Amino acid sequence: MTVLKIARVAAIGTAIQLLMSQTAIAETLKVSTFLPPKHAFNRMLEAWGQELSDKTDGELTVEIFPAGQLAPPPRQFDLVRSGGADVSVVLHGATPGRFALSELAGLPLVAPSAGSDSAITSRRLTELAPDYLTEEHAGTRVLWMAVTPPLMFHVKGFDPSNLESFKGKRIRYQGVVWQKIIEAMGASPVPVPPAETADAMAKGVVDGATFPFEATIPFDLAPVSDFTLTPGIASASFSVVMGDHAYNRLSDEHKALIDATTGPDRAEAFGAMWDKGEGAGRAFMEKGGVQVLALEQDKLDSLRQTLASVVEEVTQASEASGLPVSDFLNAYTK
C-alpha cells in the first residue's frame, strides 16, 4: 500500500471516529415504578419520555415498568443504584429513617409560605435537593422531588369526624411521620403497600388509609370506603432518581437533555397535575357513595395541637442524628 493510500485510509478512519463521537448512541431508559399504570407519576413519566424522544428523533426513549414489576416500594431506590433499572420513583416513607430530611417536607403544619399545593411544595423541595438531599440519594441523580397534596383519612365502618372514634382503629400508613400521627390519634398504624390497601380494607385488615384524593382512583378506594375526612393534614414525599451509572453512560447531548427536562420546572408541572387530580379524585369517591366530611374548626384546632407534638418529636430525633433540620426547614418554609 502506498504512503498516499495509507494516509487516505487513516483520514477516513479519523473522520469516522469523529462522526461517531459526535453522534449520540440510541438509548432506552428502563423506568421502574411501584404505582398502577394510570397513576399521575406514570402519566408524567410517559410525557417526559415522549419529550425526550421528540427532541432526539427517537434516539433517547423510556420504557416504563409500573405496578412494582421490578421491585416493591422499599426496594425502588436500591434497584436503581445497583443498575437493575435506570430511573425509579422512590417513596421516602417506604424505608423509614433512610430519607430523614426529605420526609420532613411531609410534616403536618409544615409548608412553604407560598402554600401547600403540590406544585409549590414539589418545586421548593426540588430546589433544595442539591444543597440538602444529595447525600440521602447517594449513587443516584435526583431528577425531581414530589410532595403530595395533603393526605386525608379514607375509612370504613366509623365516623372519622369524631376524633375519639380513631382510638383502637387500624390505619394503613407509610413512613415515620404518619406512623406518629396515627399513634397520636390513638389508632394503630399498620404498614400496607399502597397497591394492597383496597384489599386490606375490604378484608378488615385495616379500618382506613391515608391518601390524597388523586390516589383514590388508581388504588380504587371508593368501593371499600364509607367516609373521607377533610382537610388533609400531612403529606408524603417522593423522588424520581436516575442511577449514576445510567446517567454517566449517556452521551453529552443526552445528558444535557436530561438536565434540561428535569429539575424544579418538571417538579412544578408534576405537582400541578397532582393538584388538578384532587377534584377528580373527590368526585370519584362521592360518585362511589363515599361521604366526604369536614372536620369542625374546634376539633381541627385540637388536632393541630396534638400534631404539633409530632412535629417536635420528629424534628428533635432528626437533629439528634446530626442533620441540619433547622436550616432545611427554614429554607423549605421560606
Automatic annotation (TrEMBL):
Record bears the keyword Transport: no
Annotated InterPro entries: DctP_fam, TRAP_DctP_sf
Keywords: Coiled coil, Periplasm, Signal
Signal peptide: 1-26
Coiled-coil ranges from the UniProt annotation: 293-320
Pfam families (UniProt xref): DctP
Localisation per UniProt entry: Periplasm
This protein's record includes keyword Manganese: no
One GO location term (cellular component): periplasmic space
Record-level GO BP terms: transmembrane transport
Protein name (database record): TRAP-type C4-dicarboxylate transport system, substrate-binding protein
Organism: Thalassococcus halodurans
